């Protein structure tokens, strides 16, 4: 960033350097990060995709017992013939992918909303896919098996790297 002017002066016993810079690149960057701006929307979209990939991976691992979800009751295992949790037809798992039936992926000014929210009925009953996810998320009549959670450190680091790449690309544009 080019320095426009440096003034050196004494102020109350201190030697002060007042540095003035050409703030146009910073001003452009600050405008670029305002809600709804293309740069911010690019960052938020990358974050949403990265977060949903984390949730799908976590769901896949936890449903097979490698997380902290409580195990299925013996009666449930006997009834379904499997110890795999929350996967019978794969509907909820698929809904954790952007664009899939039941999936929600919305870019808003300054935020991204992801999860399960479209009003799609689960083929196994009257509840929607979102209803079933929330039953398990909150433990409503079943043991709580949270699906939408704070991202782990690795995912948060990936999200920051994607933001840095978008910002670096923006900084190279004229």
Question: In a nutshell, what does this entry contain?
Answer:
This protein is of the alpha+beta class and 174 residues long. It is 44% helix and 17% strand.
Plain-language structure description:
The chain has about 170 residues and is an alpha+beta fold. It has 2 domains: about 1-30, no CATH class; about 35-170, no CATH class. The chain has 6 helices and 4 strands, in the order ββααααββαα. The chain has helices spanning about 25-30, 40-65, 75-80, 90-95, 130-140, 155-170, and strands spanning about 5-10, 15-20, 105-110, 110-115. The strands form 2 sheets. It has a two-stranded antiparallel ribbon. A two-stranded antiparallel ribbon has the order 3-4. A hairpin with a 2-residue loop joins β3 (about 105-110) and β4 (about 110-115). The chain is elongated. It starts with a strand and ends with a helix. The mean pLDDT is about 85.
Helix-residue proportion: 40-55%
Let me know the number of strands. Answer: 4
- Percent in strands: 15-25%
Number of helices: 6
Summary keywords:
174 residues; alpha+beta; two-stranded antiparallel ribbon; 6 helices; 44% helix; 17% strand; elongated
SSE layout and pairing:
Layout (H helix, E strand, L loop, with lengths): L2 E9 L2 E8 L2 H9 L5 H26 L10 H7 L10 H4 L8 E6 L2 E6 L12 H10 L14 H20 L2
Antiparallel strand pairs: 1-2, 3-4
């Amino acid at each position: 960033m080019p320095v426009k002017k440096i003034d050196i002066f004494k102020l109350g016993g201190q030697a002060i350097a007042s540095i003035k810079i050409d703030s146009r690149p910073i001003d452009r960057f600050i405008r670029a990060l305002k809600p709804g701006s293309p740069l911010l929307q690019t960052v938020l979209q990358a974050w949403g995709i990265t977060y949903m990939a984390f949730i799908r991976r976590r769901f896949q691992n936890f449903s097979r017992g490698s997380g902290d979800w409580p195990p299925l009751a013996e009666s449930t295992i006997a009834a379904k013939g499997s110890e795999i949790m929350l996967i019978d037809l794969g509907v909820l798992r698929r809904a954790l992918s952007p664009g899939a039936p039941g999936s929600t992926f919305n870019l808003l000014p300054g935020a991204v909303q992801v999860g399960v929210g479209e009003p799609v009925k689960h083929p196994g009953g009257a509840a929607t896919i979102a209803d079933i996810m929330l039953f398990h998320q909150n433990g409503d009549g079943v043991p709580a098996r949270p699906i939408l959670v704070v991202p782990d450190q690795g995912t948060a680091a990936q999200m920051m790297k994607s933001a840095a790449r978008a910002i670096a690309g923006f900084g190279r544009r004229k």
